[in-house]
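Our example pasted here:


***
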Amino acid sequence: DGSELQQISGKPNGSQFAVLSDWSPDGSRILYLSYDSSTSAYETHVCTFDRLDCQQVSGDVDEGGGVWPVAWSPNGSRIAYVERKDGTSPQELFTCANDGSDRRKVSGELLEGTDVSRQNVAWSPDGSWLAYKAYQPMFGLYVSAPDGSNNRKVSNDLAWDISEFRWGPDGARIAFVEYRPGRVDLYTNVPDASDPVEVSGS
């Protein structure tokens, strides 16, 4: 009925507006972006719904940088986000604990001048893996553990785009649509990239 209206974001560090990202899986916390006018950059914050506990969970960014929250892990213990440190740095994938501690770089070495896509990142159902698109150094679909270990390319070397990808219900395989010259095909693979299967071809 509107009687318990609560401002969550406040205006930390001179921020001028906030953008809602997502609720935690248990509904206890809200992940959101705040804009910092002093650096012209976004930062990621997590707050309880009553604002009694608020934390900046992303790293500090300089002018021209930014952070884009991606997703809570399935059990809510970690947050994945894409960060650009400044105007000349690449976009890279990170995870951290839900209080901002234990920050880990997930993405591997990128081709100069390229980024991790901030629009396509997916946790496996059990939270053991993250899938993302990047030039690392070749373009493709990559899978990594949330701490950045076991980083592997699961798509084919000839692919020039991956339009979508989805984990199987048990997280044992990931399906993805792969664009190559003259064809578009559906594949599946396992997280260690050892068993690619073309599903759509004849």
In short: The radius of gyration is 18 Å. The chain is about 0% helix and 50% strand. Confidence is low (pLDDT under 50) at residues 1-9. The longest strand covers residues 15-23.
